[in-house]
Amino acid sequence: MMEQQVTKKIVAHFDIPYLSFLDNEGRVLQALPSLAQEVSHLKKLYQSMVIARVFDAKAIALQRTGKLGTYPSILGQEALGVGMGAAMKPEDVLCPYYREVPAQFWRGVSMLEILLYWGGEEIGSCFQDPSVQQDFPICVPIGSQTLHAVGVATAFKLRNEPRVAVASVGDGGTSRGDFYEAVNLAGAWKLPVVFVINNNGWAISVPRSIQSAAETLAQKGIAGGLACEQVDGNDVIAVQYAVQSAIERAREGRGATVIEALTYRMGDHTTADDARRYRNATELEQYQKKDPITRLKNYLMNIKAWDEAQEQKLQKEAQESVAQTVAAYAKYPIRKPETMFDYLYETLPEAYKAQREEVAQLKEISHHG
Question: Is 265 a known active-site residue?
Answer without folding.
Answer: yes
